[in-house]
Amino acid sequence: MSITVDVPTPDLPQATSFPDTAGGTTPDGSQTADPASRPASDPAAFLTEAELDAQLVGDARRIRVLTGDRPTGPLHLGHYLGSLRNRVRLQDVGADIFVLVADYQVVTDRDSGAEIGGHALGLVADYLACGVDPARSTVFAHSAVPALNQLMLPLLSLISVAELERNPTTKAEAATSGRPAVSALMLTYPVHQAADILFCHADLVPVGRDQLPHLEVTRTVARRFNTRYRPVFTEPRALISDAPSVLGTDGTKMSKSRGNTIELRASPDETAAVIKSFKTDTDRRISYDPANRPEVSNLLLITALCRDEDPRAVAEQIGDGGAAMLKRHATEAVNEHLRPLRARRAEVAGERALLSGILRRGAERATVEAEATLERVREAMGMAY
Ligand code: TRP
Asked: By three-state DSSP, how is residue 202 classified?
């Protein structure tokens, strides 16, 4: 990052220590679910799904979860298998879920352009398709909740420019943004994200490992606020998915920006064509060996996750069938699994009034929460005149 302003921060508590994300990330950017990469500095910073399951028994009602996506394009299979499926599971066991359409975050590294409205409504359609139920979960866009955004201001006073500049995820995003200058929003958006999470006192934030530095910013500003003024904020924990990340057609992490995805909304034929284009290898004997055969193993994993089977069992079924048979299995499993979801999406995708009504009602509920939190913040800061 090119910003080099450094302010002395004598009255700030200890510097933020970022978790070692490198420990949980393979060179191609995919994530490993290695519990050994838990940040040693703070064992309470996150928990895994298995640990959550142990805690959920009987009292999911009390757990509040905030998740979010940037509306930059249609969701894909990697989003679904890696996180969306989980959110719906949490919703279905009774957790109170806030689902954020992170529209302001889009402008960290691009102009919002004319497309953002369409992407935001498309995201809501994807959520509905996956089983997010707006009667039980709060789906909202942060540009529609002014009190949430105002919270960012006091939070910004609790972290230094130097700390923000050290954030490895922001650094990586700034480096790949392709913009001649890094915007002030790019540098400070982790604090905006802290406001996203803290306004509703979320206990848990399901995220990929790349987001752990941002969660650390949230925890830091929450702690500092509580210490400096009075306890207002809940320190949230990240919920790390057990699902390993899914690779795209080119063997790197499935991601919108790489153009290597299977979109949830794709037709069965489009899905077949995309899966045909996946990189594989020439060994006809199909085996599950993620370290040595990442591409073949990825297709086995996708098939297995869609069928709720073990990838090794899928490999056994295919045996010496080679890549072509593997791709046939994968195509059928994906299309079969996504069929009901795609049908639901097709029903709602054109219903503009329905989709924006969901965002409006979500924003109303989020506004009630955000205004109450902001009120407590102003009181704590001596600004309740
Ligand atoms: N930064 C997240 C992403 O790029 C999206 C996001 C915005 C988010 N606000 C959030 C995620 C709050 C979790 C919590 O995917």
From this structure: coil
